[in-house]
Amino acid sequence: MPDFLTVAAVRLLDDDGRILLARKRGTSTFMQPGGKLEPGESPAQAAIREVREETGIDLDPDLLEDLGVWTGPAANEADTEIVAHLFGASVRGVPRAAAELEELLWARPADALLRPDIAPLLREHVLPRLLGRAAGDRAPRF
User: Which of 2, 98, 103, 141 makes a 20 to 30 Å CA pair with 25?
Assistant: First the structure.
């Protein structure tokens, strides 16, 4: 039986529509900034804290968009499922990799979806949604 983790993640977009991808130290998979909730912390509070710790970006809680909850396989932990509270925000400023992050990169959603090193949450939910596709679709739905 798999373990379960509850996390908060943030889909950060720049003015050009690129998504910020983050890779944690010692891993090979890119994901969104975010992480585990601390005791007594709401998912939104965790999302804001994690983005600040990992990228140095302060998000305005009033501009944080609730994108729902996704459940699926964890990217870097075997036999583990995540319950991901997903939020969206736009970024102005220059993020920097901090805390446990080793690398940040900006990518156009279509390019990111082609990468082999993308976490399941991005591949199965976030990127297809940004591109107006159902998971597994090859062409946008109009």
Answer: 2
The conformational region for residue 50 under phi > 0 = left, psi -120 to 50 = alpha, else beta, is alpha
Q: Which two tokens mark 74?
A: 């964890």
* Contact between residue 71 and residue 82 where contact means Cβ atoms under 8 Å apart: yes
> Which residue, among 9, 16, 36, 28, has the nearest Cα to 92 in the 3D structure?
16
What is the pTM assigned to this prediction? Answer: 0.86
- Taking the CB of residue 70, how many other CB atoms lie within 10 A of it? 18
DSSP structure string for 77-103: STTEEEEEEEEEEE--S-----TTEEE
Query: In a 10 Å sphere around its CB, with 0-12 CB exposed, 13-18 middle and 19+ buried, how is residue 26 labelled?
Result: exposed
**CB 97, CB 104: distance < 8 Å:** yes
- CA atoms lying within 13 Å on the CB side of residue 24: 13
Amino acid present at 72: G
Which residues, other chains included, contact 56 with Cβ-Cβ below 8 Å and sequence gap of 6+?
95, 96, 98
Sign of the dihedral through C-alpha 104, 105, 106, 108? negative
